[in-house]
Structures are given as structure tokens and as C-alpha cells.
Amino acid sequence: MDIEEITNSKGQLIDDAMNDVFKGNIPNLYDAIKYHIDTGGKRIRPILAILTYEALGKEPRNIAPFAAACEVLHNWILVHDDIEDGDKMRREKPTVWVKYGIAHGINVGDLMAHKVFELILKSDFDEKTILKLTEATMTAAIKTAEGQAMDINLRDNNSPTENDYMRMITGKTAHYLTLPMVGAAVAAGSKQDMINKMIEFGKFIGPAFQITDDVLDLTEGKGRGEIGRDIKEGKRSILVIHCLSKCTKEERKKIIEILNKSPEKTSSADVAFAKKLFEKYKSIEYARNKAESFAAQAKKIADTMPRNLKEILYFFADYLVKRKK
I want to staple 64 with a disulfide (CB 3.0 to 4.6 A). Which of 2, 13, 22, 127 is the partner? Predict the structure, then answer.
């Protein structure tokens, strides 16, 4: 399987469902949503919903509104996340709050949040199934917000531990990355045992995804206009935490000073210093190995699932830790 080929073949189902709920013409609202969605994105979550539903023997068109809801949920979180982090670039283009203003950016995210549930209500399922999909989506959104709060809180912690980090990223990524699979299984009428396995899969693949993101920020960049943006934002990534556990007292003091600066006062030299230390203490290598280990654990859970579903989960596990952007 190839991610671009899958996106090309399944993408229209997602686009049609999203276009169905974003029809308004109010300036600085629907045009801003279209602008953000048109900046791109890999559509990992909605594609995962569709492929999971297909693997369970169902017609993909039926799950399209829920798949689109997963994509809108993801983008709603990104719009607000950019405001919280002060990110000015997203996918190599100005973020919504930069282009339209902070007030409109908040409102855009708010509307997208409500459209998530409108899409679920438009799904062609019985009331019991729609209620279960709503509950799963609500839980994922709550856990993600809690994880984001832990992320922001952790930036004030000068003695972060790996346990702090793991608790944060599990909340921030595992639930809403797993939601597409869980929702597809619920809609397909799968037994609770299957759904529980998917939730367990997410507990490993979510952290694998986030740790890979930490590495990409410092190596390839993540479409935010610069390398090392996480350092400027003071994020206590796994790279930071590993390095702090290995470096000298003087190096530790310097790293903490850099992380505690505002993004505007953090220089390219500061980022280069941090990166050099991460390389010195093999923190990047440690993070990559950690991500691969979590992916391997996720695959063990996938091994207990039906063959068609196992192949899809293997593909995504590999893709999430080997991607370059």
C-alpha cells in the first residue's frame, strides 16, 4: 500500500462529506475553514476509518461521514493548537490565526468542533450506533484536551521525567489517533473484544507517532517554517528529557535556560546548541528506537486480529514511524 495512492482513491469520499457541512458563505469563517483544509494533510485518520471498515467487510461509503468527522476533529485541534503554541506556519502556509486573526481562529475551531458531531449525526446508522460513535468521539476529544493541558503544564517543569512525558503523549495522541479504528469497528458491529484490542493498539501507536514527531521537528521539520520549533516553544520532548538525564550540570542549566526563553528570544544558535547536545548524548537515536519499540508492541496486538485488518494496522504502524514529514 502507498499512502498517496490510498488518499487519491478514498479522498473524494472524505471531501464530499466535509463539503456537505461546510456550505456557508460568512466571511472569515467558512472561507477560513476551506483555506485550512486546503493546505493539505495526509488524511491518515479518515483513511484509517475507511480501510478498517472495509477490512471488516463493509461498504466504505457508509462510514464516510464519520471518517470526515475524524478529519475535522483533527483539524479543529490543529487550528486551536497553532494559537496555543503561537505557530505562524502550518504545512508551509500561514496558520489560520495569522491569516484571519486570533478571534476568528478561535471561532473557526469552535465551529469545526460542532461540525464533527453534525457529521456523525448525518451518518446512515441506527440511533444506538450513532450514540456510541458520539460517545467515542467525545471521549477522544476530552482525552486530547487533557493531554494538551499536560503538554502546556510540562513546559514549566524544569525536572521533567519520561513518565510525565508518556502520560502526556498518551492522552494527547493515543485516543484520537485510535478513534477512526474504534468508530469503524463500532459501526461495523464488531464485538467489544475487537474494540478493546484497537484501543490497546492505540496506546502504543499514539506514543510512537508523537515521538516520531519530536524527532521530525528537529531533523526534517514539520511544515512550520523552521527546524527545531519545539525547542523555541519550550516543549519537554523525549529528546529533551533523555538529554537532561545524561548531560553535565552546566549543559543541563543551559538547556533549561533555552527552553524557558520565549520563542521570539530563542535564537538559531540556541536551537543549534540543543541539537548538538541531543546528538552528543544520542537522544535522537534513543527517541527513534523508542518509537520503533512502541510500533513493534502495537504490531503484536495487530497479530491477534483478522488478517485483512492486521495488514492495515501493520502498514500504518510502519508508516507512522518511518515517515519523513
Answer: 13
